Amino acid sequence: MKRYAIILMGIFVLMSQLTAQQYTEYELKSAYLFNFAKFVEYPEKTFSSSRDPFIIGVYGNDAFLEVLQTIIKGRTVFNRPVIAISVSMPEEMINCQIIYFSRITITQAILYLEYIGNKPILTVADNVENFCEKGGMINFTPQYSHKRFEINPNAAQRANIVISSKLLSLAKIVNDAEVKF
Which DSSP category does 139 fall into? Predict the structure, then answer.
């Protein structure tokens, strides 16, 4: 219960700056996405210089991108400014620290995951069936599921990304190794 409070407190602080009483799905998912970055450790050489921003790439949903840009405006992760960009080509994804896949089929997602390979990029999808089983790292689950997202720690480990136990405790854990035998 204490772990839930820690992460939820961060989300609520972020959400308190929004003017509406009710939060949209995009606002909530943007807050989660931003906070995921705070509970992930990247390899030392993830950034080429100390001036590089922390980049969140959004594939397939410009309306979500606009909301995310509003949520992260003026914020930092690892003492780096956070920016969100639209990505549509695999080559654009390589410079990102997080890729958020929205409105994508599992077939398309698999192609992008294969291109990204084991690069230290946190891959997050919006309710894409079997995303974590096929090698994605985090997947938002349907609206009324008990856990709001699932995590594949094996995929993160292959990319040399360490996901905090605090975040793992909030998720449904999915293991892609079980599917491949």
Answer: E
As a whole number of angstroms, the distance between CA 49 and CA 154 comes to 28
Q: Which helix (H) or strand (E) element contains residue 58? A: strand 54-59
- Which pTM does this prediction carry? 0.85
The domain segmentation of the chain, as residue ranges, is 2-178
CATH of domain 2-178: 3.40.50
Per-residue pLDDT of the chain in tens (181 residues, 90 and over written 9): 555 555 555 655 555 554 445 889 999 999 999 999 999 999 999 998 889 999 999 999 999 999 999 999 999 999 999 999 999 999 999 999 999 999 999 999 999 999 999 999 999 999 999 999 999 999 999 877 777 999 999 999 999 999 999 999 999 999 886 444 3
